[in-house]
TrEMBL record:
Recorded family membership: Belongs to the peptidase A8 family.
Residue ranges crossing the lipid bilayer per the database entry: 5-23, 65-83, 90-109, 129-151
Membrane topology: Multi-pass membrane protein
An individual GO BP term: proteolysis
Record's subcellular location: Cell membrane
Primary subcellular site in the record, as a coarse category: membrane
InterPro entries: Peptidase_A8
Pfam families listed in its UniProt record: Peptidase_A8
Keywords on record: Aspartyl protease, Cell membrane, Hydrolase, Lipoprotein, Membrane, Protease, Transmembrane, Transmembrane helix
The protein's name in its UniProt record: Lipoprotein signal peptidase
EC number assigned by the record: 3.4.23.36
Active site: 118, 136
Catalysed reactions listed for this entry: Release of signal peptides from bacterial membrane prolipoproteins. Hydrolyzes -Xaa-Yaa-Zaa-|-(S,diacylglyceryl)Cys-, in which Xaa is hydrophobic (preferably Leu), and Yaa (Ala or Ser) and Zaa (Gly or Ala) have small, neutral side chains
Gene: lspA
C-alpha cells in the first residue's frame, strides 16, 4: 500500500534547508561587513554581504509588520495545503516543504534581526541578478516543483 504522507522526508527536507540557510547567514554576518564581496566564479558568482528589510528586490522595504502577518498566513496555508491536498504525492510534499523552509528561514531573520541576510550575488548572461540567500533559493525551487507537480497531475487527468 502506498504511503499517504511522507512526513519523515518532508521534515528532513525542511530542517536541512532551514539549518543550511541559518548557518550560512550566521557565517556571513560573523565574517563579513555589509558590502564586502568575494569573487567565487569570475563574472558569474560572488559572495556579497547584503541586508534587505523588504521582500524580493527590496519591495515594501521596512514594512516588517506586514511581512510578519503575511508570512504567518503563508506558513499556515502551506500546512493546511500539505495536509489536505498532497496525499500520496511525495513530490508535492517535498515542494511544500521547500516553500515552508524558505518562508520560515526569512521569517526568522525578520523576526530576530529586522532584516534578511542575503549573500549570493550572481551575474547571469550580463544581468546582475539581485542578491539572494538559501531561503530564497528554496522558495524558488519549491514554486518550480509545485508547477511541475500541478502540470503532471493535470496531464494525468486528461
Amino acid at each position: 500500500m502506498k504511503k499517504k504522507y511522507y512526513i519523515g522526508l518532508s521534515l528532513i527536507v525542511a530542517i536541512v534547508i532551514l539549518i543550511i540557510d541559518q548557518l550560512t547567514k550566521k557565517i556571513i554576518t560573523a565574517t563579513m561587513n555589509i558590502g564586502d564581496s568575494y569573487e567565487v566564479i569570475p563574472h558569474f558568482l560572488n559572495i556579497t554581504s547584503h541586508r534587505n528589510n523588504g521582500a524580493a528586490w527590496g519591495i515594501l522595504s521596512g514594512k516588517m509588520g506586514f511581512f510578519y502577518i503575511i508570512t504567518l498566513i503563508i506558513l499556515a496555508v502551506l500546512i493546511i495545503f500539505y495536509i489536505k491536498e498532497t496525499k500520496y504525492n511525495a513530490f508535492m510534499q517535498v515542494a511544500i516543504s521547500l516553500l515552508f523552509a524558505g518562508a520560515l528561514g526569512n521569517f526568522i531573520d525578520r523576526l530576530f534581526n529586522g532584516e534578511v541576510v542575503d549573500f549570493i550575488d550572481t551575474n547571469i548572461f550580463g544581468y546582475d541578478f539581485p542578491i539572494f540567500n538559501i531561503a530564497d533559493s528554496s522558495l524558488t525551487i519549491g514554486v518550480i516543483f509545485v508547477i511541475i507537480a500541478l502540470v503532471k497531475d493535470a496531464t494525468k487527468k486528461e
